[in-house]
Amino acid sequence: MSLSKETQDQLQQLTRGVSEVISEDELAQKLEQARKEKRPLRVKAGFDPTAPDLHLGHTVLFRKLRQFQDLGHRVQFLIGDYTSLVGDPSGQNQTRPRLTPEQVEVNAQTYRDQIGMLLQTGGELFETCYNSRWFGEMSFANVIDLSSRYTVARLIERDDFSKRLKEGRPISLLELLYPLMQGYDSVALQADIELGGTDQKFNLLVGRDLQREYGQAPQVVMTLPLLEGLDGVQKMSKSLGNYVGIYEAPGEMFGKLMSIGDELMWKYFELLTQVPVGEIETLRTEVQGGRVHPKAAKVRLAQSIVTDYHGVEAARAAAEEFDRIFSRREDPTDVAEKTVPASELNEGRIWIVRLLELSEMAPSRSEARRLIQGGGVVLDGRRVEGVDDQVELKAGALLKVGKRRFVRLSPGN
Question: Nearest to residue 110, comparing CAs of 52, 189, 31?
Fold first, then answer.
């Protein structure tokens, strides 16, 4: 099939930053056919609402979904309320705990509240689906029929399953059913395309196989890379503390982005911004050639991302505040203020560990000691050296912890 210029442009845009397309020829054909018939493609993405606080790592997939919407295609936002009762072991080495229906609903609501920042959630280009709609009505005979369409040998080809078998770790029957359930979601929705992380590839391919079994055209599978967190090593994760949350304040988001490694910023440019590929490559060449400082490139990255979530003015203000603190070494202009009760002071002095605790700059005394020993605590421009120090607390004292956390303190009456 010959492709129109419009389809070729769409294909180039949609495959940007994608790890794998199975297959690109099928995607091109579906896009061309949809253009000719003037109908939207059904683009599925499934979410088991087990980790509802979205961070930039999650948005890699959401941004791709938005690209499909901008081209006139319909997103099928599948909340796996039924599969969440099973638990997907992707990337895990042991059985994942099952959620209660109440936990699922709380997390699903959180997802619904957040996705409006990234997707068009009204009109014909978006639909929210729950797989309890079809799985909740299945009889045991239906489950037997579904199970008969796939072999155990093929299921245990999954890397995490085969690894656990070799190590003698348990795999429940529920977990073996999970890929079939996710695959059947695509049958129920008659999905044209399904998006997921690279760790979901096996399950997405099961969807293709099952659609063939049920007489449907197989969906195109598009896998997206897992984004490394601020440490540049581990996948972005709230539990690892290497994340940037989409609801974080502009200054916090900007500062975190400025802390990433120089090489990692190019992946962030590609996956988290709309900066054209050509501009990114030009900027990268200029940085490598010494014509542009890496910090300047990183400022552009941080401003672009903060703008997407907080607007142009907030991003500009965050950049100015960052420059004020880290380049000109000036005090920040917008700092939280706290009062230390007079009863905590002894002749105007207070134990530094207790001060960190009272100011909520450390969650525990052990963490406060760790921060001090690591050289990360500065009071009124002077680094605190000892965990036993009794420090003088003056009105308006500025306490800094780490690189970006500040609080202005005053003694109470």
Answer: 52
